[in-house]
């Protein structure tokens, strides 16, 4: 698969000059994301595009390209694929839809499969936006996606949902290693990509959006192999029965019973999210945080309500919130001042004194030494009060335990710099208590699955 | 209550000059939000603050102020309140905490209640950030809140959660009429505020964050009276039993059984959210959209996956997604071109042709005339393709049915202007399929509650 994701040359068959065409956008994406290999636009309609010479057909190319992106309609794509095979081309993307998800296209898809088997072609799609090797700068991909290089690989059975999750991750400050629109999975299945990702050094964490798959056994075996070495999170659509029909007319796959899938995901060691946003939160959490040693959580705040909201979710996600030791309690009173009218326990609510960084930081230091397995820190944003970023980064340097930060009453626009500094050093930042709680929930879920599977060493 | 929310004069007792002090921030908020009445800083420590003369005590004021914000500690606040009463002051806010939520403070709170009863004082708090009459420009409020004037009133038993919801609403492009931190509710209870909001012309929609209340009967009677005339959405914390204890040490209230509350909310005609973000989505939906005539929903898209995700949620929320009429189907094929390899039904997935505004808009026009009760429109963002905002606004002008827009792979940063134009004209915009689905879910929930209560005329 290395040739597929890092080709030395890419040919685009059926590319056009119209700004709104699929082909032109694929060409733009390759150029704008600084593809370092050779690009061959293949079309008899143009002499050149974006300053590159065009070739009338595949046979005219000066070399056999590593990858061909096929941009013609669903009928012609089959013939182009046959031509690719006979030339010895081993990697292809078919963008067009209209195959097994569409009455008369079923037979065409059978032919596609036959051609790929005959020539040993690795085919992405059909019915896909393509893929983006974001880390490597290879974008055979015909739509717009705002992202940055990172270590999360995203496999999506839907372009729209995949783009939604990628954008949510971008807004959460999380980058991608690869984005793959698996489409109809006529040849390359989820399992193939997952097997590749087991050893892909660019990828630390894997996310899946799944409508359904026919080859359940292979799918779950590959999931399990991957989840044994890297965190895998999935969002599987299908709460409602009627969704099956819609999924079938989309990528031609049966959604299948949700509960059967959920059980199998657990067996495979894969954590499950229930919406695109939850999938983004799961991936952010699993990508940024170390696993906790157990389920004892400490919450630190100077505004109680959000910690209660988080606590409410955390308890149902399996976290325990043990009381503080008497020693810690006394020590905290000493720092915040005995006169403050507040009962100190866990969640540790310092009230007013807590919004002074010189109080917040020593209390955080003290708590990080107490026997907890993870920490959820809250901070209420006020433009006149400095967020104790420096202090938290110093403290974080002394501990291997997971720390999550929730900033309240603010968004990434206002605290982009602070968030980036915290996240670069492994403290994920969220803007609602429930997102912070969910992030910790997915982390504990991953730990427990690894425990049960015997994957913790 | 008019004097409380629109006072002609506000005295701030215990204000200080230190930039980080609670009192100084309250003073800044009044000034920065252009309070049009008279402001009296009351403190013996300063001669003047922000160019305003200070008064050493309440007795020195040139008039009896309409409202006093009491910024001193929890013990001294009781004496100041007594002084207010004896002067004939009828409205007060006590900011300090340390009362019924804190062992030795319980007796102080009993005294506060007695003083207010004796003098007929309407008291906000104690243990609160204060309140903000955002529409009227009156901010006796000591923290930072980014918001804009609008028609949603937010009552919150927690400052931090209330700020979180306010900021989520701000990011969703939704403004506030009033923000009220109810705190310990020693005198003014949820019920008092809700009774006032029944006839508050600035408020169209009401949101509540509730930890718990002791006077359940009155609370639910007031909720029901309010919900009969305005949409009310609540987020009640308390999924986990242990949360009770934490809520008690926060605002001294019992969280109580979640299921008891949920049943009572339904009885009262109040829709229920399960997180701060869901509350924001419920409020946005209920504030911007007309009620649907029934539960027949139509989805329009050119990228199927997100519509499947939304559909999955929508079906479990009570929406039906009926098939298209043969006539509509034929008409759509005529517009998008017969050759497009796609099965047209509901969700209407136009695939490729749909991203041309000149295809999208006429299909939308056609569907708006079909017998559906509400619409969920998807658009996949691409900076090179114009979102058909103009067209949708024209179509929206011809229908009274609710229309929700989901923009995929983008956020408000990139499409702020387009979003504002759509939202100003009553088409709420969301950035994930699940948020769009939830918005419609809350809308149908509201309609059904009104139906059952006999409130639909």
From TrEMBL, chains A, B:
Occurrences of domain CoA-binding (ranges): 4-99
Highest taxon, organism lineage: Bacteria
UniProt GO molecular function: ATP binding; ligase activity
Keyword ATP-binding (UniProt): yes
Coiled-coil parts of chain: none
Presence of the UniProt keyword S-adenosyl-L-methionine in the record: no
Name used for this protein in its record: CoA-binding domain-containing protein
Originating species: Thermosulfidibacter takaii
Keywords from the named record: ATP-binding, Ligase, Nucleotide-binding
Pfam families: CoA_binding_2, Succ_CoA_lig
């Amino acid at each position: 698969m290395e040739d597929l994701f890092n080709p030395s040359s890419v040919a685009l068959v059926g590319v056009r000059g119209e700004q709104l065409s699929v082909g032109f956008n694929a060409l733009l994406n390759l150029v704008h994301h600084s593809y370092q290999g050779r690009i061959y636009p293949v079309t008899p309609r143009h002499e050149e595009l974006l300053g590159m010479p065009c070739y009338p057909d595949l046979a005219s190319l000066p070399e056999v390209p590593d990858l061909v992106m096929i941009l013609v309609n669903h009928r012609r794509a089959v013939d182009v694929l046959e031509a690719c095979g006979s030339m010895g081309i081993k990697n292809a993307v078919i963008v067009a839809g209209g195959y097994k998800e569409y009455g008369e296209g079923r037979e065409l898809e059978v032919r596609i499969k036959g051609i790929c088997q005959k020539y040993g072609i690795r085919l992405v799609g059909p019915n896909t936006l393509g893929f983006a090797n974001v880390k490597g700068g290879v974008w055979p991909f015909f739509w717009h996606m705002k992202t940055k290089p990172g270590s999360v690989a995203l496999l999506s059975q839907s372009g729209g949902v995949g783009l939604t999750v990628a954008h949510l991750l971008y807004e959460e400050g999380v980058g991608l290693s690869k984005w793959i629109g698996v489409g109809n999975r006529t040849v390359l299945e989820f399992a193939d990509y997952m097997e590749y990702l087991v050893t892909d050094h660019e990828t630390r964490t894997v996310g899946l959006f799944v409508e359904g798959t026919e080859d359940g056994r292979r799918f779950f075996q590959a999931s399990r192999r991957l989840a044994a070495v890297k965190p895998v999170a999935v969002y599987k659509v299908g709460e409602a029965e009627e969704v099956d029909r819609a999924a079938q007319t989309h990528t031609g796959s049966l959604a299948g019973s949700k509960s059967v899938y959920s059980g199998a995901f657990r067996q495979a060691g894969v954590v499950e999210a229930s919406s695109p946003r939850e999938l983004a939160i799961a991936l952010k959490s699993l990508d940024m945080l170390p696993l906790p040693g157990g389920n004892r959580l400490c919450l630190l705040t100077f505004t109680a309500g959000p910690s209660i909201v988080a606590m409410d979710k955390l308890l149902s996600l399996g976290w325990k919130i043990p009381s503080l030791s008497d020693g810690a309690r006394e020590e905290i009173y000493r720092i915040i001042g005995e006169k403050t009218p507040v009962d100190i326990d866990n969640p540790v609510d310092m009230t007013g004194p807590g919004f002074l960084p010189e109080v917040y930081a020593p209390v955080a230091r003290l708590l990080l030494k107490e026997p907890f397995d993870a920490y959820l820190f809250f901070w209420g944003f006020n433009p006149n009060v400095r967020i104790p970023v420096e202090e938290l980064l110093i403290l974080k340097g002394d501990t291997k335990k997971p720390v999550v930060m929730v900033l309240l009453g603010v968004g990434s626009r206002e605290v982009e710099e602070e968030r980036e500094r915290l996240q670069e050093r492994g403290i994920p930042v969220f803007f609602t208590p429930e997102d912070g709680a969910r992030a910790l929930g997915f982390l504990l879920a991953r730990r427990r699955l690894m425990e049960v599977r015997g994957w913790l060493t």
